[in-house]
Amino acid sequence: MHDIQSIRKHSAAFDKGLIKRGIASPSKAVLAKDSEWRAIITKLQIAQRSRNEASRQVYVAKCKGEGVEDIIAEISQIKHYIANLEELERKLAAEVNAMLEILPNIPADDVPDGLDENSNILMRTFGTPRSFNFLPKDHVLLGEGLGMMDFSLGAALAGSRFVVLKSHLAKLERSIASFMLDIHTKEFGYTEIVPPFIVRDAAVYGTGQLPKFSDSLFQTIDGYWLIPTAEVPLTNLVADSIVDENELPLRFTAYTPCFRSEAGAAGRDTRGMIRQRQFTKVELVSIVHPDNSDDELERMTNCAETILQKLGLAYRVMKLSAGDMGFTAQRTYDLEVWLPGQNEGKGQYREISSCSNCGSFQARRMKSRFKAKGKKKTDFVHTLNGSGLAIERTMIAILETYQKEDGSISVPDVLQPYFGRDLINLV
């Protein structure tokens, strides 16, 4: 959410930032509605002062033994006028808020210009994509060949974009998640959380999915929402609260299912587990002092990269352009893992993690503040989130990278203590 006072003072900078997002000069319409709202507030304040003065006159008149009927009639009229103004003020305040809540965060100054992924900037790469002496298969052929990945059964149970994992692949998913959680909690100091998987409107509003992206969410018949990512409950752990400065940073991680309707994704990534309506993910969330959020983004990205490095998976890090970033982000790094079985065995980089600094954007929506020691004034925290990592896409990368010509899969060394064996083959 944007600060209306900041827009009043710095409308040109506000417009410049959102033009990078492809939104043309929104401040004019926002400030016009804001001007209407402020004018009504001024009228309301004048009317309230008139009411108070009339009430004082009643007291004075009674003390003098004078009649007060005319003054009381005037007060009644003023009260009716105030009630109408209050209703109009609430309406205009809601209209200003509705205009602000659908506008995305302003990109940081160093975010590349551009409206899509074609303008993203390569920051670094890690590892060399594996060379094969045979044509590598994709994860669908591998999983179905092992008899452990069933898309037909998933579709029969729940419709398109669902899968049933069986036997060793079911255990592999659990092993990957346990490995990731151990790294993030033991090496990087994140606190593990088991949050609700169903949340109220306020939670999805606070992290920015509502109202603009309701079509991409699943809603229960009684109005709750299935979480699209653990970012929602983890970030909202500090909603409507004031955190002591000495408690910062707060770092949370959780392994949860995620639910997305994938509205608008028709025809995209229809094969396999790349884009599912239900998937699992280990999420990272940081709540930090505003002065430290840029450094925290680098740290969080490194945490996610460490998982890929320990798994021996080749990847690259991209700085996203303004038009490719998520709604709430002011700066984002994408980690893209190499999937050798994609593109008919030619291989392809695919996103496996997005790490974003959201600044105070979510905190304003959630009303999440911190208080510095010795100061009365509070300020908004900064929030960050990132995948650490998406489990199914990590599994895809492992299956395709560690496949053998006979269709069996070598288990990465770091997963063997969790998985209990070094090979996935026909059972």
From TrEMBL:
<keyword id="KW-0175">Coiled coil</keyword>
<dbReference type="InterPro" id="IPR002317">
    <property type="entry name" value="Ser-tRNA-ligase_type_1"/>
</dbReference>
<feature type="binding site">
    <location>
        <position position="387"/>
    </location>
    <ligand>
        <name>L-serine</name>
    </ligand>
</feature>
<dbReference type="GO" id="GO:0004828">
    <property type="term" value="F:serine-tRNA ligase activity"/>
</dbReference>
<feature type="binding site">
    <location>
        <position position="385"/>
    </location>
    <ligand>
        <name>L-serine</name>
    </ligand>
</feature>
<dbReference type="InterPro" id="IPR006195">
    <property type="entry name" value="aa-tRNA-synth_II"/>
</dbReference>
<feature type="coiled-coil region">
    <location>
        <begin position="71"/>
        <end position="98"/>
    </location>
</feature>
<keyword id="KW-0067">ATP-binding</keyword>
<keyword id="KW-0547">Nucleotide-binding</keyword>
<dbReference type="InterPro" id="IPR002314">
    <property type="entry name" value="aa-tRNA-synt_IIb"/>
</dbReference>
<feature type="binding site">
    <location>
        <begin position="260"/>
        <end position="262"/>
    </location>
    <ligand>
        <name>ATP</name>
    </ligand>
</feature>
<feature type="binding site">
    <location>
        <position position="283"/>
    </location>
    <ligand>
        <name>L-serine</name>
    </ligand>
</feature>
<dbReference type="InterPro" id="IPR045864">
    <property type="entry name" value="aa-tRNA-synth_II/BPL/LPL"/>
</dbReference>
<keyword id="KW-0030">Aminoacyl-tRNA synthetase</keyword>
<keyword id="KW-0436">Ligase</keyword>
<keyword id="KW-0963">Cytoplasm</keyword>
<dbReference type="GO" id="GO:0006434">
    <property type="term" value="P:seryl-tRNA aminoacylation"/>
</dbReference>
<feature type="binding site">
    <location>
        <position position="260"/>
    </location>
    <ligand>
        <name>L-serine</name>
    </ligand>
</feature>
<protein>
    <recommendedName>
        <fullName>Serine--tRNA ligase</fullName>
        <ecNumber>6.1.1.11</ecNumber>
    </recommendedName>
</protein>
<feature type="binding site">
    <location>
        <position position="229"/>
    </location>
    <ligand>
        <name>L-serine</name>
    </ligand>
</feature>
<comment type="subunit">
    <text>Homodimer. The tRNA molecule binds across the dimer.</text>
</comment>
<dbReference type="InterPro" id="IPR010978">
    <property type="entry name" value="tRNA-bd_arm"/>
</dbReference>
<dbReference type="GO" id="GO:0016260">
    <property type="term" value="P:selenocysteine biosynthetic process"/>
</dbReference>
<dbReference type="Pfam" id="PF00587">
    <property type="entry name" value="tRNA-synt_2b"/>
</dbReference>
<comment type="similarity">
    <text>Belongs to the class-II aminoacyl-tRNA synthetase family. Type-1 seryl-tRNA synthetase subfamily.</text>
</comment>
<feature type="domain" description="Aminoacyl-transfer RNA synthetases class-II family profile">
    <location>
        <begin position="186"/>
        <end position="412"/>
    </location>
</feature>
<dbReference type="Pfam" id="PF02403">
    <property type="entry name" value="Seryl_tRNA_N"/>
</dbReference>
<dbReference type="GO" id="GO:0005524">
    <property type="term" value="F:ATP binding"/>
</dbReference>
<dbReference type="InterPro" id="IPR033729">
    <property type="entry name" value="SerRS_core"/>
</dbReference>
<comment type="pathway">
    <text>Aminoacyl-tRNA biosynthesis; selenocysteinyl-tRNA(Sec) biosynthesis; L-seryl-tRNA(Sec) from L-serine and tRNA(Sec): step 1/1.</text>
</comment>
<dbReference type="InterPro" id="IPR042103">
    <property type="entry name" value="SerRS_1_N_sf"/>
</dbReference>
<keyword id="KW-0648">Protein biosynthesis</keyword>
<comment type="function">
    <text>Catalyzes the attachment of serine to tRNA(Ser). Is also able to aminoacylate tRNA(Sec) with serine, to form the misacylated tRNA L-seryl-tRNA(Sec), which will be further converted into selenocysteinyl-tRNA(Sec).</text>
</comment>
<feature type="binding site">
    <location>
        <begin position="229"/>
        <end position="231"/>
    </location>
    <ligand>
        <name>L-serine</name>
    </ligand>
</feature>
<dbReference type="GO" id="GO:0005737">
    <property type="term" value="C:cytoplasm"/>
</dbReference>
<dbReference type="InterPro" id="IPR015866">
    <property type="entry name" value="Ser-tRNA-synth_1_N"/>
</dbReference>
<feature type="binding site">
    <location>
        <begin position="351"/>
        <end position="354"/>
    </location>
    <ligand>
        <name>ATP</name>
    </ligand>
</feature>
